[in-house]
Design brief:
Blueprint (H helix, E strand, L loop, with lengths): L17 H4 L1 H9 L5 E4 L13 E9 L4 E8 L10 E5 L8 H7 L3 E3 L11 E3 L9 E5 L9 E2 L7 E2 H18 L8 E6 L2 H17 L8 E7 L5 H4 L1 H9 L5 H11 L9 H14 L22 H9 L19 H10 L2 H7 L18 E2 L6 H9 L3 E7 L7 H9 L5 E10 L2 E9 L3 E6 L6 H4 L1 H12 L5
Parallel strand pairs: 4-7, 4-10, 9-12, 10-11, 11-13, 13-16
Antiparallel strand pairs: 1-2, 2-3, 3-7, 3-8, 5-6, 14-15, 15-16
Length: 475
């Protein structure tokens, strides 16, 4: 494998973005290094060398706007020559693939200790899915995480355009990494990524049928708490809230009577009023996991330009520069730590981040437009599974953002016959969730106690589920 190391400025050098200094030079530098990669052996805050192979890098996906997608590739710790390769995408849209790397299914996790400045600490995740698969964690769509575009217009993407960019990314990545072409390949992801993954799989399968090079060995996809279609996702929030005891019988009956099953767009005033009541009640709880405390999801960020300059020039931001600090026992505290770790100069150097491309890293970037131009993914699920691709759809059963009720409903709408009826699946002699297997290689499973997203809340159960499915064993 050819490796090109990209070095960011050392401690004494000025970190003002190149765009403000020598824009012409920046264009030359970036266009010359569109497939640059770095082998990472140590990470700041991680004690000792990494116990797994990690590569980071950029792949150019659109020449006109100079769009490059950034990735983290963690090789399987089991048998990289034969284990599956998974492209892992995070929701948002526009949340960094680092979310998957450090919070969902990846090989590291943060030590959840009160932040007092400096570098947060990382440790190896013993329940990483890289124990049975090699995983590419991708900052997609464009301008998420460390992905960038020289022309700001390159950040303006949507479901279809970003999915085509992912296909281009994979074609180039596998061209540069031909040793993994024969491995089984899967697309995986959570939340909004679950909506576009079937579209991406469609593009990849069409490329294979046309004998495009490289021939990616697509076997299927696995998606958790996936967005699919508002007719299902939004409608079942009301029923889910009633089932969790958040909405009373009377309010639920009023909603059914006045909305007549359509909770997406109220058709009359009485429906609008009862849905307002439902929304108000849901706002009292954490809808990502109804049993957890409500915590601050706000991305901490510097409060003025002077602070921004300081964080670019010094080692890290002082904690009082970051509003919206959750308490250590909050589910979101790790996200808070990630902000300081990612905006530390040593981290940028270790990851091989191109100087001048991304100033401030935020986990979920809401600054750029994103077009939700694909109304539903259900037809893509139908097309892929009937053509033989495997699919695992799973839901944390305490999620009210995308309730498992809605996921079950759109799966039933496919009208596939059941080949293994609803039953518990087990871990250590206990029910870890419930599952049903359909014809056309489609499996649905719940993860007991899981939220949005399941591996973040129930890593042990999610690990067992994924390992069995990837190894073609029954759950």
């Amino acid at each position: 494998m050819s490796v090109k190391l990209l070095r960011t400025p050392t401690a004494g050098q000025h970190h003002q973005p190149l765009l403000q200094l020598v824009p012409g030079l920046l264009l030359v530098l970036l266009s010359c290094s569109a497939s640059a990669s770095t082998v990472v052996t140590h990470l700041p805050g991680f004690d000792g060398p990494l116990p797994f192979y990690l590569e980071t890098g950029y792949v150019g996906v659109e020449e006109e706007t100079g769009t490059e997608l950034f990735y983290y590739f963690a090789e399987s710790e089991r048998s990289p020559g034969t284990d599956p390769v998974i492209l892992w995408l995070t929701g948002g849209a526009r949340c960094s693939g680092f979310t998957g790397f450090a919070f969902e299914v990846g090989p590291v996790k943060y030590v959840l200790a009160p932040y007092t400045g400096g570098l947060p600490q990382l440790v190896h995740n013993p329940l990483s899915w890289t124990k049975m698969a090699s995983i590419i964690f991708l900052d997609s769509p464009a301008c998420s995480g460390f992905s960038y575009a020289r022309d700001p217009k390159g950040c303006d993407v949507g479901d279809y355009s970003s999915s085509l960019q992912v296909q281009r990314f994979l074609n180039k990545w596998f061209t540069d990494h031909p040793q993994y072409l024969s491995n089984p390949f899967y697309l995986g992801g959570e939340s909004y990524a679950g909506k576009v993954i079937p579209l991406m799989a469609q593009y990849i399968s069409q490329g294979t049928e046309k004998r495009d090079q490289p021939l990616i060995n697509l076997k299927g996809y696995l998606i958790g708490n996936p967005v699919a279609d508002p007719k299902f996702d939004t409608n079942f929030r009301v029923e889910g809230a009633h089932g969790f005891g958040i909405v009373s019988d009377q309010i639920y009956e009023a909603a059914m009577k006045n909305c007549k099953g359509n909770y997406v767009i109220p058709q009359n005033q009485l429906c609008a009023e009862v849905l307002e009541t439902v929304d108000s009640l849901i706002s009292e709880i954490a809808d990502g996991h109804v049993l957890y405390k409500k915590c601050d999801f706000t991305t901490p960020k510097p409060i003025d330009d002077a602070t921004r300059r300081k964080f670019l020039l010094e080692e890290s931001i002082e904690p009082n520069d970051a509003p919206g600090r959750p308490t250590v026992d909050c589910f979101t505290y790790g996200y808070y730590l990630a902000y300081f770790w990612m905006n530390n100069k040593m981290t940028r150097d270790a990851l091989g981040i191109k100087w001048g491309t991304v100033g401030e890293w935020v986990r979920c970037n809401k600054e750029f437009p994103y077009t939700h131009d694909m109304p539903s993914s259900i037809l893509y699920h139908l097309n892929l599974t009937t053509r033989g691709y495997r699919a695992l759809v799973y839901s944390g059963d305490h999620d009210l953002l995308v309730p498992q009720l809605s996921t079950q409903a759109w799966i039933r709408s496919l009208n596939f016959s059941i080949i293994d009826d609803w039953r518990a699946w087990h871990l250590d002699g206990q029910a870890a969730g419930f599952t049903v297997a359909y014809a056309n290689n489609l499996t649905f499973a719940t993860v007991k106690g899981g939220g949005h997203t399941a591996p973040e809340y129930q890593p042990e159960e999610s690990f067992a589920m994924a390992r069995r499915w990837l190894d073609n064993e029954p759950l």
